[in-house]
Amino acid sequence: MSPVRNIGRRLARRRASGSGILQPLAVGWLVVLWILLWGRVTPGLLVTGLLVAVIAIALFPLPRLDVEGRVRPLPALLFGVRFAWDVVRASVEVATLAFRRDQEAPTAVIGVPLVTRSDLMLTLVSEVLSLVPGSLVVEIDRHDAIVYLHLIGVRDREQVERERRRARETEARMIRAFGSPTDRRALEARP
Amino acid sequence: MIGVLVAHALAALIAPWLVGRIGLKAFPVLALVPAGAVVWAAANTSDVTAGRASESVHQWVPSLGMELAFRLDPLSLLMTFVAAGVGSLVLAYCGRYFAADEQGLGRFAAVLVAFAGAMIGLVLSDDLLLLYVFWELTTVLSFLLVGHNADRQGARRAAMDALIVTTFGGLAMLVGAVIVGEAAGTYRISEIVANPPGGTTVSIGVALLLVGALSKSALVPFHFWLPGAMAAPTPVSAYLHAAAMVKAGVFLVARLAPAFADLDVWRWSILVLGLTTLLLGALRALRQHDLKLLLAYGTVSQLGLLTVLVGQGSRDVLLAGLGLLLAHALYKSALFLTVGIIDHDTGTRDLRVLSGLGRTRRRLAVIAGLAAASMAGIPLFAGFAAKETAFDALLHGDTVDVLTLVVVLVGVALTAAYAWRFWWGAFATKDDVPDRRCTAPRTSFELAPALLAGGGLVLGVGFSAVDALLSRHADLIPSDEKPLHLAGWHGVGPALGLSVLALALGAVVVLVQRRLAGRPVPAEAPRRLVDARVAYVLLVRGTERLSVAAARATQSGSLPVYLMTILAVFGAAMTTALITGLPWNVELRTWDEPAQGAVGLLVVAGTILTLRARRRLKAVVLSGVVGYGVATLFALQGAPDLALTQFLVETVTLVVVVLVLRRLPSHFTGTVSSKRRRRVHILIGVAAGALMTMLTLVAAGAREAAPVSELFASASKLAGGNNIVNVTLVDLRAWDTMGEIAVLVVAATGVTSLLFLRRRSRAMPRLSDPAADSPVWATDPATSGSGPGADGRTGSAGRATQGGSAPVPGLLTVVQHAAGGSGTAKSAERWLVAENTLAPERRSILLEVVVRLIFHTVLVLSVYLLWAGHDLPGGGFAGGIVAGLAFTIRYLAGGRYELGEAAPVGAGLVIGLGLVIAVGTGLAGAILGDAVLQGGAWKPDIPLLGTLKLYSSTLFDIGVYLVVVGVVLDVLRSFGSEIDRQIDEERHGRTPTVERAPGSTR
């Protein structure tokens, strides 16, 4: 099979499936990335960046991204600050654990049921939870939106519940910051 | 002169197309090319005869002193006439000889034309090494020609024999050529002959050259390959084994005789081997029943005679030899072509079956008669004139010459006898044999042999016409006697008496043989005391045994043994270097900044932990720590390019090794059998490490010359780039890079071919495959380690590391739902193309979403690295790996079908494209600039956009980029997709009766 014909066929298939329009958001991001990489803005770079972005997306098509929701500045800021604080706090905790040689740090795996029904939000929440030291997402149940967190330094039921609460609060902050309307309604409906 | 060779090369290139187009008619068309060479040679004849040899010299590899040096002098002119003239006639003859539906005719035509070109190139070469190149070219091409009927085992074996024997001789000749060339200080043959070097070394070199010449000309003890090569189609035999290739040896002897004929090693080996061959070949010829074999042994015999004559070392004998060379080319090829016609028209070459052909095919009989008469040495024919000159010349020599004369006389008599046997056998009407039926004669078929045989008569009568030309070469050997001349008739004298005596002796031999033929023939030929063919077979078999034994002795297949051998050799060599390098100038510096010390500690810790690791995965990850640590050191040292490349390579390696680990036991087991051996290993390892440390310290302090880096910095400015590393890779040291990517490709291909039992291009998994319905990476309750009773819907956190890990009951068993699996949930949100092919428990929404989000970003990053490489950190290699990583994450997130959909082109295609671009850029540099891979820059001003900087080296870098992407794809396809497929196949193909103990390792 000749590669040229092959590419032609793929483009045709894309057009038939109705996703032939290159997504402005994706292309825009790639152009911005291109400019950032070069570190300067010139007309030439804008044109080449556009060219590279369009070719990359056209040659290697992936399913369409449907991003709902928009960024709300104030909750986003709140989330950012809180996330930064969480990272610092958890870093100190884990560092303390590492230097305490008297006993082995107790660990646990807990399931945290989330509110969101969006894959993207599920992934982002998992990433954020994993970025915080001491907790790591080891498994995601996509169907029921349950993330399984591996925790370090939890001693009792109370601490487990506290971590579960923290994870759910993180999700809530993220939904408020840039969640879809569906997710926000679900959040409000949660007891 | 080069034009003649180029014409042949081009003709060879279009020959298959031409044959495919117009069939057999292509042969006469192709014959025009060597015919043109004959015309060219004829146009130069008067100049060359007058002593004005023309030369054509082009530089080839100046650093080795190799030149494309060609020279048209009397000897090369004579050989050009023979090679091109006979070649042209034989090509034309092929058009009638072959059937239109003959297999592989296009290739045959191409090879035959190429052979003619190689032969002409051989005789025109004035450089010993160039001559060797053409020499081996004729060997290889003759291999293809002899093996034309590749479906016959005999043909294949004969081709192989000819190849081995002549290549053996050729290699000896190469060594000889180098020895002689180095001793003479030049490889130009004309200069060597003008001022021959002397000494023992040169004698050895000349002896080696003779080995090449004698093996090519099928002299004893190499004579056996020539009759075997009669498996070739008859036109090939007529050309290669009568006129052209076997004459190459005679040509070389004639070429070098003026310089080296007075060496003892030359004189005696030529005389003894040549005369032995003369008699042996002639006697064997008399015993043959196959006309072609008869001619073959006759050729062996005549080649012996020719070698003796041209190598004997006196002017007149050399002249006679050259005359006989010409005469032999005419009559022997005419006879071979006659045999071809007989074989073609009657279906046999056996003289015991042939009868009555003289009456039905009178014209052919006359043609063959003319040629045979020339071979027998009947007066007025060319063979007569040449042989009589030889008698005359030898008669006036010393004792050795007279003894030689006696043997030659006997040989000539035997030649006359088998010439008669040939003609009689082919055409006579035999009383006790029924007449052989024969198809009607075709004039065009008999044209070529008629011209050749008639040429023998014309030459015989008018031999004096070529005397001036041949004498000019013979005169290279000084002679104080009155020089002899070639002529059709020398008048009555002792030489004529000898000629008549030879003919009479020949008649006696014929009569005696006829008397003997009445006796019953023994059923089996008597065993000969020394049979060269048997010796050869034994030798070849012995060599094969030896190589197997050697391989078994050295290639134990044990990695520790290999490693220890390498380290021991390295240690010994470097210790010697260290000791001879005394005194050392070691300057210890702790670090430039403390971070280096910290990273160094990390690397050391990682190394120690790697060594102590008992689990493979752990060892791999820890060695990754070492790699990343070293990369960090590069970065701290101010080498961002090195660091970037190291980080990327380390990452790809980690992925690949993890993919491979799936097929290995999880723990290192059974590697070291005893404590003692383990201690030896530790000792060698520690010693090698200590040595390396010492070496680094000493080497750093042993600088004598100015650092080359300053030179490189200015050179890269000159090449128009700011990134020294990249400019070095793609411009200053582009040859090295070319070699490296070639090695990369070879390694990847080797790996792939080990894993793929099928062709790799077919093995690309696509969604459209019917097999795509069965889930990928499905866990197997027996092996995945979830403990007994698991329902198969279980997974563990570690992806792609299943296989062989011992089960730990109760650890992290999470029941999963078939979200987006092959069942109902297909309408769920989609992130990738082929993630639905994965087994549900193997899917990771995290990976899918992240890969979807960053895939294009990574691709753009790779393009940036490629583009920016000339001035900033990056380059084709780094960019290629980044792009490869983009495909790697697609594979890791979506399995082999995802990879197939992400990159639906064959890895081989990508690699090939990259190589073509890289090589093409290099060649373009050679065509546009002065040297291969020389860079050029193009900076067009584009309105509004500014100046675009384009370097030819950027194009080269694109080639590198593609090669690297292709290699990564190749590795993913083999270690990833193909192993997946094999695992799945084993799982599905496993019969349920085979029970595994739960948790047993593979």
Your description of this structure?
The complex is a heterodimer of chains A (about 190) and B (about 1000). Chain A is built from seven helices and three strands, in the order ααααβαββαα. With about 190 residues, chain A is mostly helical. Chain A folds into two domains: about 5-60, no CATH class; about 75-190, no CATH class. In chain A, α2 (about 25-40) packs across α3, α4 runs antiparallel to α6 (about 155-180) and α5 (about 120-130) crosses α6 (about 155-180). In chain B, a hairpin with a 4-residue loop joins β1 (about 55-60) and β2 (about 65-70). Chain B has a two-stranded antiparallel sheet with strand order 1-2. Chain B has a two-stranded antiparallel sheet with strand order 3-6. Chain B has a two-stranded antiparallel sheet with strand order 4-5. In chain B, α3 (about 75-95) packs antiparallel against α4, α6 (about 155-185) packs antiparallel against α8 (about 200-215) and α12 packs antiparallel against α13. Chain B is mostly helical and about 1000 residues long. Chain B has three domains: about 1-515, no CATH class; about 560-700, Up-down Bundle (Four Helix Bundle (Hemerythrin (Met), subunit A)); about 770-805 and about 835-990, no CATH class. Chain B has helices at about 1-20, 25-50, 75-95, 105-125, 130-145, 155-185, 190-195, 200-215, 225-230, 235-245, 245-260, 265-285, 290-310, 315-345, 355-360, 360-375, 380-395, 400-425, 445-460, 465-475, 495-515, 530-555, 560-580, 595-610, 615-635, 640-660, 675-700, 710-720, 725-730, 735-755, 845-870, 875-900, 905-930, 950-990; strands at about 55-60, 65-70, 935-940, 940, 945, 950. In chain B, about 65% of the residues lie in helices and about 0% in strands. Chain B has 34 helices and six strands. The chains are: A mainly alpha (about 190), B mainly alpha (about 1000). Chains A and B meet through α1, α2, α3, α5 and β2 of A and α31 of B.
